[in-house]
Amino acid sequence: MSTISNNSKKGEKKYSKLLNNLLLIKSRDQALFTKVNNTEIFDINSKFGEEVSKKILGQKTFNLEIKEKDIQSLINEVSRSEDHNEIINAYEKYKFRLFNKSKILLENEKSFSEEKNELLKDLKEKKQKEKTRWKLYRRKVYDLNAQENIWALHVGTLFIKFVSSKKEIYAPLILKECQLEINENNVKLKSEENWKINEKLIFMLEEEGYIFDNSKFDEIIEINEIKKYFLNYFNVNELDFEMSDEFKNIKREDILNRIIEFQPGVVLGLFKPSGGHLRKTMQEIIKKDILDEIIDANPDKSVYDENVENYILNKSSDLIRIQKSNFSQDKALISSLIQNTVIWGPPGTGKSQVIANIIANILENNKTAIVMSQKKAALDVLKKRLNKISFFVLFILNDNKMDKQEFYTPLQEFVKHVENRKTKINKSANKIIEKQDIDILNFISEMKKNNKYLNSLKIMEIFKDNWNLLSNAFNLSDKWIYPEFKDNEKKFLKDFYEINKIIVKKVLGLKIYSKKYKELCRNAISIINESNIKIDSFIDLIGKTDLSTLLKLKECEKLSSKISNIEMDEDYLVNILSERILSKINSWKYYNKSLFDDYKRFANAARAARRIPYKFLNDHISIIKELFPIIVTTPETTFINWERNYFDFAVLDESSQMFIEIGLPILYLSKIKILAGDPQQMQPTSWFETRDQSDEEEDVAENANSLLDYVRNKGVYEIMLNQNYRSSSASLMSFSSKNFYNSDLEVIDDEVKKEQTSIEVENINGIWEKGINIKEAKRAIEVVNEQLTNYKKIILLTFNSDQRQIIEKEILEKWPNLSKAIEDEQLTVRNIENIQGDEADLVVVSIVYDPNTNISSTYVARAGGKNALNVAISRAKEKMIVLKSIDTKNIKSGKSEDFQTFYKWLNFLDMSYEEKTKYSKKDKFQIEESFGEVDSKFERDVLEFIKERVQTHKKTKIIKQYEVGSYSIDLAIVNEKGRFILGIEVDGYAYHEGQGYDKYLSDLSRQSFLETKGYPIFRVKEIDFKINKKKLERQLNNLLEELI
Predict the structure, then answer these.
(1) Is it the case that residue 346 has pLDDT exceeding 60?
(2) Do residue 658 and residue 745 come from a single domain?
(3) pLDDT for position 932
(4) How far apart are CA 873 and CA 1035, in angstroms?
(5) Same domain for 85 and 158?
(6) Helix (H, G, I), strand (E, B), or coil: what is residue 873?
(7) Residues 932, 976: contact at Cβ < 8 Å?
(8) Which among 335, 442, 480, 558 is most buried, taking Cβ atoms within 10 Å?
């Protein structure tokens, strides 16, 4: 017992910062301290009337028209007011904010009337724009849902207040999720949900020693029942007020009672009440001081490399895929299935495809997993990637906008597939690399180590495909000198003896030549006669290789020139999963009648699709756990208290945006931990909480900014996805590639879409005033309106939230077509702080700043600003239009790394199209240049060969090192207008010095990447070129004939 106590104290001390954030010590969370401010939290009684409050409390479901009464009442009282105290009291009464500047002006008799009139003018304007405000408020709810995967809009009631040992508490015990419905005629507040417990508040109460019967909180149907439970629990006979009475704003310093007191009020607002289970799990981990045990990493990273290599070479045929993948994605998939892995996914590199393939393999291997992200967009994309497989995965997403059909359709498809399984489908025998290719690469590598490769290649080039002569050549010996042959065999033999100073035997005066030397000379003559090959051109090579080596080298021409066409296994997986589940159901029929009956009820209810989604989940939770081995959800979703290592895998997407205390409890539940994210993108932020940022603790990994930073600090094995598929133009990603990914991120122009206007810059010369640039805002709206019919999806991005708010307000008030585009999700308005996870065909950017802006004090130049910039400028798929009122010539200087990155980007915007396109290209020949030429002799030989032997029926030209973004194709054949026709990649088998199969597969993956971007590639392998030039000539001519 004492050991546990000591561990608890040790853990709490060591991880005090983590524990403070877990307990929300420094919180401004409305779920723990509620304050009506008429921007995020509203008192329903004073705002809409007591009748609305009573209906919300008295009806299980409601659909109520709401009209603001408080503004008109405030207008009336301000109009009647004759001194400053009356106006100040009126604002406090109706819970509207009155700025100190206004209070000062009101207190001055000379300015009282003028300020009063200004306040009335402002209030009347607010009254007129009531519907616009609610649209903006609803948009904030939707944004929170997209950013944090929570539904924040609730009504809350049954308030309690008290002082805990940690902080002052004033918050609702119960809440109900609701929605705003806005049309031309009215604004409605509606809900079909049950009341639910405020998990955070219960957690804080339990921290104070209160113990509750949590089963009472599972499904709160009757509000009076839960009210009665709490009144009895806290020994309160009756409330001396009506719950529907007005809410009272209470200051923290006025809360002095340690005994629980109930307070009136029903409020509407943005709350984040969930997460109690996570917090309990995290606290348990800290108290037991076992946090260090969750992530274990071997300092010897070669072990992880070897694990992946062994799987690729020996077990890759076991993999199944439901999404196409490149080599870096395959490596990430393999590593994730066998060991803790960080999947480093820069923008647009196919992270969701990898996760979809991971899930598919987990399902096929009959394992379990929990998959989580705080980004709704990430999970929505994942669901699309899974396609039919998503029916076998349970998605529990907190999305109040989801209708019944959207919820039930996957469940109905699941039942249909299980109960109507098709004929057995065989798995595709896909391999990342064939055994034949492995053997060839090993052989070439060994030859290069032994210095046999070049000598063997030279002798094969001399003899072409004439293996009979080559065999004769190896009957020669390189220790002899061979004379020139001049059509006289006897003379040749005689000269051979003389040159090599061999003594001729004489018998009875006759010269007797040895049979051995006669045979040697006959072989030499046959070679000369049949091929006109001079002996001295190859004889020195004979002793440096052997015939068996050449025969094996000849087989190397069979080395694959392209990645094999991987067949997708989606239908196979649907079939095998259906068969497996049906078998389980049939076994229940005989061995577990209860589960069998549960399944029948589940299937019938899914087909009927009558219950509200969350009620359906509650009704069938037991059978759902049996049927769905993989759960995809958000960390804030209430979930069962699973034990440590309950799941085989945990997959956390967007982990660079997840706080440690949120993610670690999830990792605690699994054996293998997989984290996807990008350390060069945004760090986690909170809309609801103020965190403990103190730096007084030990320098422990747990003080990292994000979960991704934490596991990287721990040394978890990383694999970077290195090919950007999102952007059609290299210039859209080249700045990020160079400045954030050391140019290791491959960015390539789409051949058919590339255009020199992928980044357009307009110098607006607007003025920055109070965080807003009106001129840029107006132009941004105009640009979006001009481009609306040209793009399926548009993001209007601003560099601060004030600019975004004024743009949204302008659109909602004056641009009905753009308002509709927002509702239809064709247009999204974002600021730089909340853009991560979004992408669009067109991104319109308003930088906002002008020459007088102190950039160093702005978000983009503060710590983490460069990461936000990276996210912001990597969202566009086809085009980015940048509106700016600042450039590098007139910007105020700054010293931070974040400022310098922003400064570089402004410079980048002024570059030409060609400069932007090749901005991130690495100079791969820096070392060689000091010794001479950049291009290899082999590449020049291929160039000359094409010029001499390949012909087309139209004029063409060949370009060396053809640039397509961060990569250059060795040789490119283009037409008269410079349009790309065919790329030639020169393959000199550079698969040695420890790179082997990895280099080979990376090269083929890059070739495949080029081809997906519209660049057909022909690979010229060195062995083919040396011995099969006629074959290459024929292949190239035929291919060009087809392409031209």
Answers:
(1) yes
(2) no
(3) 27
(4) 43
(5) yes
(6) coil
(7) no
(8) 335
